[in-house]
Design a protein that fits this description.
single chain, 5-stranded antiparallel β-sheet, alpha+beta, PAS-like_dom_sf, Helix Hairpins, Beta-Lactamase, PAS domain-containing protein, chemotaxis, 3 domains, MCPsignal_dom
């Protein structure tokens, strides 16, 4: 390995392995022949990122690879290394990784035997550079002062010295207590503040401090404890911005707003503000002037509005009375029409009921006529049945007569037979008696049927007469029904017409009532408008308008202490700087 052989070479390699520096050795052909553990650990941690940019990079085959794997343009790097006479420093960026490289050629005489490359992660260096530049930027625009943990002043920049009016020689070595309010209040504030700072608790917000001659200074500041690696507070750095001009502007505007709240518009802000706040002063003056002119115009318009409102109120009152009279008349008309409509509706209802009753009577008469017709048919059929029964009875009577003759002949024959015909004679006698009884019964039935037929004929006559009467009644009912139908139709039409008239009148009544209500509302509104116009006039009178302007004083009395500064608004929070950024 570049002539490192034997015990001496082993000792040198062991020394390189033990170094915390990241060492890589390449031979004259730029082949990597050695990397120590520190370099391996550095590149191993970055391997995934390096592979995204360098496709040939592989930690497992790094030793033995050529350094060309680290370059997109190997020819350029080879030319540079071939001409290298002394140590060369470079920074390379691979993806989001940045490395600082120190390349030292290993020479024997004028011949290059190889190269030693020392790797370093450049993130810390870049970050420290960034922090240093940030602090320089802060130092240019903010007041900065450093203290010991006990509050002793170590240093201060020009911005701070300009703000307090001291030189560095006048304050260096003195205590922070010199900038606080005198007396117990200042002592308490100092003790509380520095107890917190020594406990690594920063203090951020708007504060009041006192410069040379007791002049109050308004600052937006942050006290930042700086710790060492063990976490112990070793110093305190204060970053501040002088906001005295802002305080003056805010207090001046606050006083102006107080006067404005009391109705005083006769002032203007004459002392210029700082550049950032000058537009606020100009806008305040312009707003006050514009408001004064507006209120003057309002005062003039208020009188005109009041006169107009009173005229409207009088006219609305007259219109309201006439509308109320019209509404009352319409209401009476609507009530009368309601009664007429109800009566016509009842008459129509009764006519409809009578028409329905006539229709029902007509239906009943038709039904009764049908029943009578059916009764006449039934009577006719009964009469026919009676005749048939009479014929049957005549046949039965004739059969009885013939049977009686036969029985008589049988008796004669039995008598002739002598003793042998006695039994037959008895039977013939019984048959003859039965025949006589049948003839008698048939005669009685025939008499009854004759009487029944007479009654049936009389009933049929009466039913015919009833049918004729029902037909006459049915004809009369039909005529009555036609008249009732006509009456019902007329009543319905009359009821519908009256309902429409009643609806129209009621609608007119409602519209009139609404108009009356609207007139009353208009009257009340006009009266309210007049009252409000008077109130507005009284309110405008309370304002002191800028006829003769008075001005706010050019200078403002300033009270001492923290509370006076905090009274114009809540302290603004600022971003806490990291401990390493304060240096």
């Amino acid at each position: 390995m570049l002539g490192l052989h034997g015990a001496a070479g082993t000792m040198k390699t062991g020394a390189l392995d033990a170094m915390s520096a990241n060492i890589m050795i390449a031979d004259a052909k730029l082949n990597i022949i050695y990397i120590n553990p520190a370099t391996r650990e550095l590149l191993q941690e970055a391997e995934s990122d390096l592979k995204k940019e360098l496709s040939r990079f592989d930690m497992s085959t790094l030793v033995g690879s050529n350094i060309d794997i680290f370059h997109r343009n190997p020819a350029h790097q080879r030319g540079m290394l071939a001409a290298l006479k002394s140590q060369h420093k470079a920074t390379i960026t691979v993806g989001h990784r940045v490395f600082d490289l120190i390349v030292t050629p290993l020479k024997r005489g004028e011949s290059i035997l190889g190269f030693v490359v020392e790797w370093a992660d450049a993130r810390a260096r870049i970050q420290n550079t960034d922090y240093r530049n940030q602090l320089l930027a802060i130092n240019r625009v903010q007041a900065v002062i450093e203290f010991t943990p006990a509050g002793e002043i170590v240093s201060a920049n020009d911005n701070f010295l300009t703000a307090v009016g001291y030189t560095l020689a006048e304050i260096k070595g003195r205590n922070h207590r010199m900038f606080l309010e005198e007396g117990e209040t200042g002592d308490h504030l100092f003790e509380q503040l520095w107890t917190d700072l020594r406990a690594n608790k920063p203090h951020i917000g708007d504060i009041v401090r006192f410069g040379k001659g007791g002049r109050p200074i308004y600052l937006n500041a942050s006290y930042n404890p700086i710790t060492n690696d063990s976490g112990k507070v070793v110093k305190v750095v204060k970053f501040a911005t002088d906001v005295s001009e802002r305080v003056f502007a805010v207090r001046t505007v606050g006083e102006a707003l107080s006067k404005l709240a009391l109705g005083d518009l006769s002032f203007s802000l004459d002392r210029p503000f700082a550049k950032d706040f000058e537009a606020l002063r100009e806008n305040m003056n312009a707003a006050t002037q514009q408001l004064g002119q507006t209120l003057a115009s309002v005062s003039l318009s208020t009188g005109l509005i009041d006169d107009g409102a009173r005229e409207i109120s009088d006219g609305a009152g007259n219109l309201s009375r006439r509308t109320e009279q019209q509404a009352a008349a319409l209401e009476e008309t609507a009530a009368a029409l309601d009664e007429i409509t109800v009566n016509v509706g009842n008459a129509s209802k009764r006519a409809n009921e009578a028409r329905q009753a006539a229709e029902m009577a007509n239906v009943s008469a038709n039904h009764s006529g049908q029943i009578v017709a059916d009764a006449v048919g039934a009577m006719a059929r009964i009469e026919q049945s009676s005749d048939r029964i009479a014929n049957i009875i005549s046949v039965i009577d004739e059969i009885a007569f013939q049977t009686n003759l036969l029985a008589l002949n049988a008796g004669v024959e039995a008598a002739r037979a002598g003793e042998a015909g006695k039994g037959f004679a008895v039977v013939a006698q019984e048959v003859r008696e039965l025949a006589q009884r049948s003839a008698k019964a048939a005669k009685e039935i025939k008499e009854l049927i004759r009487n029944s037929s007479d009654e049936v004929r009389h009933g049929v006559k009466l039913v015919h007469e009833t049918g004729d009467a029902l037909k006459t009644i049915q004809a009369n009912i039909t005529t009555v029904n036609e008249h009732m139908q006509a009456i019902a139709v007329s009543a319905n039409e009359q009821s519908t017409g009256l309902s429409e008239v009643n609806s129209a009148v009621n609608q007119m009544d409602q519209v009139t009532q609404q108009n009356a209500a609207m007139v009353e509302e208009a009257t009340a509104s006009s009266m309210t408008l007049a009252q409000e116009a008077e109130k507005l006039r009284q309110m405008v009178v309370r304002f002191k308008l800028p006829a003769q302007s008075s001005h706010l004083g050019a200078a403002m009395a300033t009270s001492n202490g923290e509370a006076s500064f905090a009274s114009y608004g809540e302290p603004k929070k600022i971003v806490r700087l990291r401990a390493g950024s304060a240096g």
